[in-house]
Amino acid sequence: MSTKPINRREFLEWMALLTGGAVLAGCTQPAPVVPTETPPPTPTSAPTDTPGDVTVLRAGATPWAPWHFLEGNRPMGIIIDVMEAVAQKTGFAIPVDILPQNRMLEYFNTNVIDTEPVSSPNWRGEYADISVYTMPYCSTVDVMFMLAGSGLQPTGIQDFEGMRMGCVLGYFYDRGLQEKLESGAIYRDDAPDNESNLRKLMAERVDVVIIERTVGLYLLRELGIAPDTIEIVYEHSQAELSMRLHKNKADLLPTLNAALAELVAEGFVQRAIDKYTL
Prior knowledge:
It is globular, with a radius of gyration of 19 Å. The protein has two domains: 8-138 and 241-277, 3-Layer(aba) Sandwich (D-Maltodextrin-Binding Protein, domain 2); 139-238, Periplasmic binding protein-like II (D-Maltodextrin-Binding Protein, domain 2). It is α/β, with parallel strands linked by helices. The chain is built from eight helices and eleven strands.
């Protein structure tokens, strides 16, 4: 029986369908449920009447609280606040639709949407031919949460060997951690989501949890976990994040970069993060 090799893009898209959209790259993102149908995107934050001379950048983002998520039918989160501020500075209309991961990628590939409002070239390497990026304006950091008083002062991944680590099902971890997990040097204890992992940590069912720092701080607040009961013992990997634009919108980069630079300098981006984590 003959076989046909697939390229990396086809492989990643197949894996997205298999895992429900888990991101197989650096810092982690959630794995939303894949729907059975792919209707056109329904605007959730678009202005009802956009003048014909206004530049519209339709954005697509996946559920990833507190970065971007739905509260009822309304998009909320750090990046939603940032995009609203960018729209005010540029005069652009930037409606954001919250979409499952594989659908968002499909719509970007076909230019149904124009931008992924927060992304990294490291996450979307297979789509470099259709992607351009603004300046980085925020970052994510995968960190290790442990119960306060652990006494651990790790200098590297090797210091977690022999421990039970709470991971999210379907996630791939870089910088040597994946190899440790696959070899069993660090025992991988999967959960369906970050919230479940934090509950297991509080119940001492795992020794350590790997989690994106902003997500972790947000969940501590949402779950009513006192911050002083948890400590960050290690920063594992960091990704600088930008707006990813379809190449057809590359001419807008200077205007967007100027707006983002102002928002960073004014402290707006950090205040948006603090709003959901402090």
